[in-house]
Structures are given as structure tokens and as C-alpha cells.
Amino acid sequence: MEEQPPPGTTWYPGEGKTAYTRTCAGGATTGLAIADGEEPPPPIDPGVLAQQAVDKMKLVGPDIASPRRGGKYVVGVPMWLWVHKSPSTYGPNTATATAGGVTVTATAKVKKIVWRMGDGGTETCAGPGTPYKASYGMQDSPSCGHRYTKTSAKAPGGKFALTATSTWAIDWQVTGDGGESGELTEIRESQAQVAVGEVQVVG
Description:
mainly beta, 2 domains, six-stranded mixed β-sheet, two-stranded antiparallel sheet, 12 strands, 6% helix
């Protein structure tokens, strides 16, 4: 500060110290008290704090509900794709990180899931998918599904290798009015094995 705060004021640094102000890009201002002869610490990068907050969330790939493990599926029959939702697998998930008087809060949620079906087909779904019920019969999923056109007999192990890849959209903001804000993207994936056969007709 060009003029040091006098004793008894809010930002008085104390005997033998110098007061500094630091203003972030978003306009938030913090005060620092540095001992005489020492250099002020480097500015805090809110983006780095945002990444630290994301690391605390321990985000993982989709928790695949369908196709289920051990399930057997049939060529031409609609397969409904959906995932279980939790803070670490789908969101929303919120965490904070603090350094040098700066606090950043980050909130993450899955924006989309891309399903690579193992047969060369890909399905991109904006949501978690719709859970299937027996009463739906042979309907296609209203939100996220796939139809296999060939069996998995020639695939390694007799099963298609399926991969579900989630894209996490993360918004972060520095605490306080006018605090700097930004966005991050994280990618996570999960795998599953899918056995697909043909309907056997007995004559």
C-alpha cells in the first residue's frame, strides 16, 4: 500500500511488517502483512485452486447399471443404457480449496456420456439414461439405447468390450462478490463386457 494503515485500523500489519493489497482478475481484494525485508508471496492462481478442489472430489467413471454384468442380450432387441447416479460418478459434486486467503468453490456434474458399444457403434447420451422395466416390453429407450446387429461370438472371450466415457463440466468461483470464475472439463471412463447372441428357434 502506498500509505500504510495506522494502528487500530482493519489492515494494520503490525510492528515491523508492511501491508500489501492483492486484487484478483475478478475484482476481489485481499490484504497481506509481510515482515520488513521479505518479498510478498507470488499471486495465488484461482485456476490451480479450482483443480485442487476437483482433485478432492475423487471423480470416477460411470457406474454402469445396464448392460448389467452377467447379462445376456440378443441381436436386434433394444438395449437400454443407464447408469447409477452418485456424487463421485455423476454429480453434482462440490468441493473447496484455499490458499493465501483465496478460497475457490468448484461444482462438477456429468454433461454427457459416450458409449462405445464394442461392435463399432457409438451412442452419445446427454443424461444418465432411463432404467428399464419389464412393462416396457420391446420398446426402445426414450433417452439412451442401442441395438446390436451382430453377435459377440467372434469377439475376444465371446463378449463385446464396452466403454462408457463421461465428460464432467465443472464451474468454479472465487468466494466473495465479484470473485473470479471459470470452467474446467474432466474425462472419466468405465468398462464392461457384453455377451450378445441370437434367438434360438427350435423347429
